Amino acid sequence: MRASRRDFFGRVSGWLGAVALGGVGAHAAADTTKMQGAPVRAYGVRAAYEKAARWLVPSRYPTSTASFTPLAALHGTVTPSALHFERHHAGVPDIDPVAHRLLVHGLVDRPLAFTVEELGRFPVTQRQYFIECSGNTNTEWAGPRGADVQQTHGLMSCSEWCGVRLAEVLAECGVQPAAAWIVFEGADGAAMTRSLPLAKCLDDVLLAYAQNGEALRPEQGYPLRLIVPGWEGSTHVKWLRRAKVTAEPYYTREETAKYTDLMPDGRARSFSFVMEAKSVITTPSPGSTLVRGEHEIRGLAWSGRGRITRVEVSADGGASWQTAQLHGPVMPLCHTRFTLPWRWDGGPAVLASRATDETGYVQPTREALTAVRGVRSFYHYNAIQQWRVTASGTLENV
Amino acid sequence: MACGIAIALLASGATRAQAAPRGLGSVPHAADIAALDIAIGPRGDELPPGAGSVAEGAAIYAGRCAACHGANGHEGPDMKLVGGQGTLASAAPVLTIGSYWPYATTLFDYIRRAMPFTAPGSLEADDVYALTAFLLHANGIVAADTVLDRARLPTVRMPNRDGFVPDPRPDVP
Predict the structure, then answer these.
(1) Scanning A317, A319, A346, B108, which has the fewest C-beta atoms within 10 Å of its C-beta?
(2) Percent of chain A with pLDDT over 90
(3) Angle, nearest 10°, between helix axes B54-64 and B125-138?
(4) Nearest to A24 by CA among A59, A44, A49
(5) Which residues from chain A sit within 8 angstroms of residue B16, using beta carbons?
């Protein structure tokens, strides 16, 4: 009896252990079969016992900061909209969807302004895509710094997006031969602006109005945002009000002063859009405490270049690797959940995961990554993440 | 002007129905486009009329920017706007307008749309030209007697203009 209980709690220790202990042990008093429950509700809320929350970076300005997704508390591949990470430069604007317009102009035959309702009358496209901030995991360039997976990897989320392909809307306007880029602009207090190559815009970019089955959340760009599959989060301009078709990029502040990658020789990479393959173990991870015995290692893998084809897991800091199970459907440019059964015998262990995508790209080690890029480039850190299991069963970033 | 004529022609229903596959969207007035057309590319095509000097900029900066960016642009508490030249290849690079930004037009664009932080979009074009001139001068890029306008600003050459390279990834063996 005791042994089997310990096994149960051990296996689920990461995300459910604490809740299960509290729920079963401490509060068994009220017999819910002897009373009426809560009445029906027009818009649901989660159970009062569930506390997973975004982590807000301490900042002088609560409107120009970021919030991080609690990855260790989540299941599957979809991030609940209320827990999707945020990065704003001037807070969340309150936009009336009826008054809002998307202006498409510049090198087009017919400049047009679209209401959100009109965009909804184009054929809908629905896809599940991750969004990762290119600053995600930037704590780790110079060595292990982030306290837990929320701090190291939480600038990343994944949703089902519905919207219209930008290509359809551009066809309505008639793109001229000289066009090569589009400058996108948001309706927030920073009028956030980014330039994107026309080829990507005509390929898979979406004008999204819905996320996970309902209208976008205000902090996710309500009523209209760009989705730029597989590319760095800041290109997914929120509160989108304008798309100007141009011959050249506009070298906005967010693609020069920011979102450029400084190399050791003092030169910087610009328009480094794609998010390369990456993975991280979310369970177990710092914050959970292991007991000896059977566990399931769980994590997420994703690639901005397509599908994840393989995830390997190591329990000895990369000395040996085992192939993990990928939970389908494995979709391109989307979170892929991987799991691997694992027994902890109480000895030293360093857990790590390594993703491979359909281009054959393999997630690098920190040493390999920093050997090429140094430690000052801030953006696009995608190296293998390691968690060391201590003798007491806690985990730490190493 | 040419743009306005084109729009007027396209406003006739027959032309549009023929050309636009779905007939969705409405034709914006040229004035509405112009009012929103605030993104400034390196050629400066969209720069508004107006002008501002380093001296005027210094006065505006002291009143509206210095509290956050420091009296001389590098004391904080918020982002350093001045200094850092020669540090990019060092162990402690300082990325500022002067050390890092490749185009002066970006400075006008960003100040006009996003600063001052507590009142974005509140500055007149003359003020933005002046602040741009002041910050470029503070970084040693233009002379103290500089007056910037739509013709002059795009000709300013930034020290790190050639400091950027295309994305070579995948780059890690």
Answers:
(1) A319
(2) 92
(3) 100
(4) A49
(5) 110
Does the pLDDT value for residue A156 go beyond 50?
A: yes
β pairing state of A268-270 and B164-166: parallel
What domains lie within chain B, and their CATH numbers? 50-164 (1.10.760.10)
**Gap from A266 CA to chain B (nearest CA, Å):** 4
* Interface contact A172-B20, CB threshold 8 A: yes
Task: Tell me how close the Cα of A323 comes to any Cα of chain B, in angstroms.
Answer: 21
Residue A220 is which amino acid?
Q
Amino acid identity at A127 = R
Q: What pLDDT is attached to residue A337?
A: 98
Q: A83-269: which CATH topology? A: Sulfite Oxidase; Chain A, domain 2 (3.90.420)
Using the predicted structure, report yes or no on whether residue A234 has a pLDDT greater than 90.
yes
Residue B89 bridge partners (DSSP): none
- Tell me the ipTM for this assembly: 0.91
The pLDDT assigned to A30 comes to: 87
* CB of A131 less than 8 A from some CB of B: no
> Please, which residues 267-306 of chain A have a Cβ atom closer than 8 Å to chain B?
267-274, 276
Q: A278-397 belongs to which CATH class? A: mainly beta
Confidence of residue A347 (pLDDT cuts 50, 70, 90): very high
Written as six digits, the tokens of B151 are 């013709």
CA distance B108 to chain A (A): 10
User: How much is the pTM?
Assistant: 0.92
* pLDDT of B2: 39
pLDDT tens for each residue of B17-29: 446 789 999 999 9
Q: How far is CA A206 from CA A164, A173, A179, A192, A354, in A?
A: 6, 16, 19, 18, 30
Q: Which of B32, B115, B139, B169 to mutate to test the interface with A (most CBs of A within 10 A)?
A: B169
What integer is the mean pLDDT of A166-170?
98
Torsion of CA A123, A124, A127, A130, to 10 degrees: 110
Instruction: Report how far apart, in Å, the C-alpha atoms of A348 and of each of A146, A149, A259, A365, A394 are.
Output: 21, 20, 39, 20, 11
pLDDT at A164: 98
Residue B13 confidence (pLDDT) = 41
CA distance B144 to chain A (A): 24
**CB spacing of B25 vs A114 below 8 angstroms:** yes
Q: Is any Cβ of chain B less than 8 angstroms from the Cβ of A142?
A: no
Asked if A358 has any chain B CB less than 8 Å from its own CB, the reply is no
